[in-house]
Design goal:
37% helix
């Protein structure tokens, strides 16, 4: 059987013109290297070197074989390098689904850091509602979904990442526009407009939980529009509420204010969801970076029903 080290011995002998110097390069006995080359010549059926007291030199046929050996070893070395890169997560593809904005906020910052550290990984992105993304992750069509917290299906894991501050958009003449800091208590009686699609339902649930009193619930209007078009409904006494509104509001004469509770800005929690059996290296690297960079106190990984503990 021809082994890789035999091919490397041949190249070293041709490079140094000496079996002894080639053997020193590998830290082996000259006899071991000489026997390996002799065995290789026997398997190939032709002499690779002309031997003399002055050393060794490739034969005419040997030069042809050495050229082929050089290409073979280069391909093998590249194979090992690419395999190590795949195993380390330095190359490959990360398929990520997002329910929200890719270009702004904490996710954009995390993706920038990930690209800087793993520039050869191709990121394929998909935007959709949370349930569609979780289904795609469960079916193996996506490696990862980032969306609002929910109980994951069996076989999926989640990691709490960060909170996206909730903001309201007010018409310029709205009475609350003069307040520099806006609290939930300031919003009693307001008429809220949220998107019908994600993350609108989660935001509506937060508004309801904060402002329901003695059997009365806040008035919430759901519009089947995205974040950009949601701001068109911030007119009169209506208050549009969502996340990452600043970029969408640049071209509109609106007042934006974060909503606060007693502990600081109210936030919509974002989580990463992935299959427990997905061992893709780019995914592992992304999760490691996300777990390290997330703000606030550590969040324990929550397993979907049916997952076995590690």
């Amino acid at each position: 059987m021809i082994e890789l080290n035999m091919l490397r011995y041949v190249l070293a002998a041709a490079d140094t013109g000496s079996f002894s110097q080639a053997a020193n390069r590998f830290g082996i006995k000259q006899a071991t290297l000489s026997q390996s080359i002799h065995y290789l010549e026997g398997r190939l059926g032709l002499p690779l070197f002309a031997r003399s007291t002055r050393g060794v030199a490739p034969t005419r046929s040997g030069r042809h074989i050495l050229d082929r050996v050089s290409r073979i070893l280069a391909d093998i070395d590249l194979l090992f390098a690419e395999s190590r890169a795949l195993a380390d997560g330095r190359t490959g593809t990360l398929r990520i689904g997002v329910n929200g904005a890719l270009a702004t906020g904490a996710l954009a910052a995390l993706l920038d850091r990930y690209r800087a550290r793993f520039p050869e990984v191709v990121i394929e992105a998909r935007e959709d509602d949370r349930q569609a993304l979780l289904t795609a992750v469960d079916r193996g069509l996506l490696d990862l979904a980032i969306a609002g917290r929910t109980t994951p299906p069996a076989g999926l894991r989640l990691l709490g990442l960060w909170g996206e501050p909730l903001a309201v958009a007010l018409a310029p003449d709205h009475p609350l526009g003069a307040a520099q800091t806006l609290y939930w208590t300031d919003l009693f009686g307001a008429r809220f407009v949220v998107s019908a699609g994600d993350p609108g339902p989660d935001i509506a649930a937060i508004v309801t939980a904060r402002l329901s009193r003695q059997g009365t619930a806040p008035m919430i209007v759901r519009q089947n529009v995205g974040r950009d078009n949601l701001l068109a409904f911030a007119t009169g006494d209506q208050v549009a509420i969502g996340v990452a509104l600043a970029a969408a509001a640049e071209q509109r004469p609106l007042v934006l204010r974060q909503v606060h509770d007693a502990f600081g800005p109210a936030c919509l929690e974002r989580c990463a969801f992935w299959r427990a059996d997905n061992d893709a290296a780019p995914l592992r690297a992304f999760l490691a970076m996300a777990g390290h960079d997330r703000s606030g106190p550590p969040n324990a990984t929550v397993r979907g029903e049916g997952d076995r503990p590690e």
